[in-house]
Amino acid sequence: MAGRSISVPASYEAHTALVPRLLVVNDLIGDLFGLSLDPELDSYQLIQAMYYQLPYLTEETGKMRAKGAGLLAKQEASPEDRMALAAIVARVNDRLTQTGTAYNKSVGANPDVKTKLGAQWQDVQELAQKSMQLANEQIVRAEALTYPGTDYVAQTTKAIDAQFAAN
User: Fold this and answer.
1) Is residue 133 within 8 Å of residue 140, measured between CB atoms?
2) What residues contact residue 129 under an 8 Å CB cut-off, 6+ apart?
3) 65, 90 contact by CB (below 8 A)
4) Distances from the Cα of 42 to the Cαs of 26, 70, 114, in angstroms?
5) What is the pLDDT of residues 49-101, one digit of tens each?
6) Is the entire prediction scored with pTM above 0.85?
7) Domain range summary for the chain, segments of one domain joined by +
8) How far apart are CA 161 and CA 5, in angstroms?
9) Angle subtended by helix axes 54-74 and 112-135, to nearest 10
């Protein structure tokens, strides 16, 4: 990395191989400290949302950013490329739904959670939705890839930043 001799595809491949291992370590740390056994419904569900689900949402959003940015930089995408990005977008949507389900259970058990985190969660939802819509409209279903890659990266980075802020 320091010598800048790694290619973008090799860097992406190394990153996507390492992060799932780190997420498993994150899960094990949560278990070690008893987070997965919290006896209070509100904090248990909030832990599920923020500690167990949200990191996976962030990783999938990062993959969506990287894949889309690469395709926009080339200004071309094969049908396989479009299908791969569509699959990532679907995983972002699934992770957003899973995170939201746990968050909403926490709010249902303790409305103060929404008072404290509602604005951040709203940002997470809105920015993730905008990013998924952008990927679908400007890459997956676009006839020509003319959307500026820098704008795409900026939008998806906002979504990732909102996820970190909520967490």
Assistant:
1) no
2) 96
3) no
4) 21, 40, 11
5) 999 999 999 999 999 999 999 999 999 999 999 999 999 999 999 999 999 99
6) yes
7) 8-166
8) 28
9) 20
